[in-house]
Design goal:
With 466 residues, the chain is an alpha+beta fold. Helix 1 packs across helix 2.
Amino acid sequence: MTSIFSATKQLHPDPQEPAPPGPSTEAAPPGPATMIYTFKKCVGLISITVSGLLLLAVFNAWGTWSSSGVDIQPRLESPIKKLLEEKLQDSISDYQHIAYHIKEDVACRLALNTCVCLADKETFRLPFSNLIFPRVWAHRVDRAFLDSHPDPEGVKHHRAQEYSSFQRRSLNPADLLIVTEANSPLQYPSQGVRTRPLKTILIPGLALKEEQRSNHMVYLSATLGTFDVAATVNQVSVTGEGEKHIELSSPLISALNRQLQFVTYTNTIFHPKTADTVEFATKGHQGFFTIKVEHGTIPKLYNSGSQKEYNISALVTIATKTFLRYDKLRDLIESIQQYYPTITIVIADDNEHPQPVTGPHIEHYIMPFKKGWFAGRNLAVSQVTTKYVLWVDDDFIFTANTKLEKMVDILEKTTLDLVGGAVREVTGYTATYRHTLSVEEGGEEGDCLHIRNGYHHTIEDSPTVW
């Protein structure tokens, strides 16, 4: 307490007290006030020292984090050579014995067909450091989900089946790679070359087939991307690397063809769906092929259960729109739940005075009065989370002959997107709607849509399906 009061007096001296000794006056022995003054200077020195250490830590953190980013370089044990070998093993080539030298800066941009996510290492922690110096973090969402699931292996197996089914349904023969072997001296892919926007690929199938001469030369030109080589071959001259026009020449035809196997294309203009026309030419001959630039189709995988037979409740939702026919609607719901008691039923209702429609697995949505059938359909379908939706009118009735399993089976085993069934009236009359849709090229006002009775052909192994 004495030291505190003495310090106060030192800061606020009394006018009646003698003045402190001047330069020519003998200094008084250190008292409490002098000790506090010295203590404050020490505290100031310690504060400066701590501040300096904090600044050093911040600069160290800055040096560590300022360059943080997603490292896209290969993280596995130099897989580039293996990647190139895998990409070239199916190519038409007699030049596998010719050595090459990998260009790491180009080859590392090729897709490695693997997902490796690594987070930045935390070197120093300060308050709010993640806000000031954000770090790259990584989290395996799939692993977190599987760790909490009672049957992780079953989920992985079912997901693999769903993904295989998606690939089979989304396969487009026009996307398959076809390499046109040289009728002229040029060999190049005629279809099936695709890259994602701003990504790099190896161009498959390039070759020159001509008689031996003193020098062999080819060039490639593009408009939406640039060319480079992922590896170099001895005795081959390459000019225009990283540009839209590249030339390759060599006195050895075999060396040139080996080099052509490593030509890369990098899309440089972002567009979600377009194509680049590439010119491939040599003296007196030229050819053209397209490289599709587009995002891949995102797989839509659904949890349809782990049963060997179709789990209709997990695959199908029934949707309907009702107006002024609650008695018919209740008959429909009762008939559905008689044969499919756990299937979800979505109802869009635009009655002026809505009545409650409740029960297990029923979702009832109220709309503005007389909003209309189209709005009701859109609302009902928007609430569907299953793989398939069955649309029915609110006066339909399910019977023992209503087999949703047959409809699902057709959709699962074919590339069809829509199936329908016959509707039997109360009188016994059965209406089967069979017609074909076709679009023919029209004039300046647009194309022509034709709707005609009939069908195209039956489905293989399903003679009752048209």
